[in-house]
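Researcher: I'd like a candidate sequence for this fold, 139 residues long. If you have to choose between options at a position, lean toward the conservative one.
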């Protein structure tokens, strides 16, 4: 008896859901029109300026260096091989961090006005010590 009742309730519920009209955007049409009108007004007020050269240009050499850095991070975390990672981190294009501290310690921090083109992070164990290595790449 309970099985039949629960089966009937499930069927009624599924039937009600299947026949309900799908109006996900009801009430939002006015909001969309208002937002579109607001953005249109903003674009009218701003005078057209020539395009600035703020886009990031990356060539194949930069991509190869980025691949080397990815491999160097894995070697540092998994095999504690610091040589290649350290040499790449000395490059001005990379900001490197080990356990949330700048790496190498002697490298001066460079103020950046653009976001990084790419970044990477890897965590692992070296014995009992946890290691978190992160880098940001600015071509």
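Model: Candidate sequence:
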């Amino acid at each position: 008896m309970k099985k039949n009742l629960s089966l009937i309730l499930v069927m009624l519920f599924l039937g009600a859901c299947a026949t309900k009209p799908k109006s996900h955007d009801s009430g939002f049409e006015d909001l969309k029109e208002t937002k579109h009108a607001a953005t249109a007004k903003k674009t009218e007020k701003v005078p057209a300026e020539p395009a600035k050269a703020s886009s990031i240009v990356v060539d194949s050499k930069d991509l190869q260096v980025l691949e080397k850095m990815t491999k160097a991070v894995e070697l540092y975390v998994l095999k504690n091989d610091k040589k290649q990672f350290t040499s790449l981190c000395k490059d001005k294009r990379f900001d490197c961090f080990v356990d949330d501290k700048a790496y190498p310690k002697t490298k001066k921090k460079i103020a950046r006005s653009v976001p990084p083109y790419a970044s990477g992070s890897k965590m692992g164990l070296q014995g009992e010590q946890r290691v978190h290595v992160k880098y940001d790449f600015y071509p």
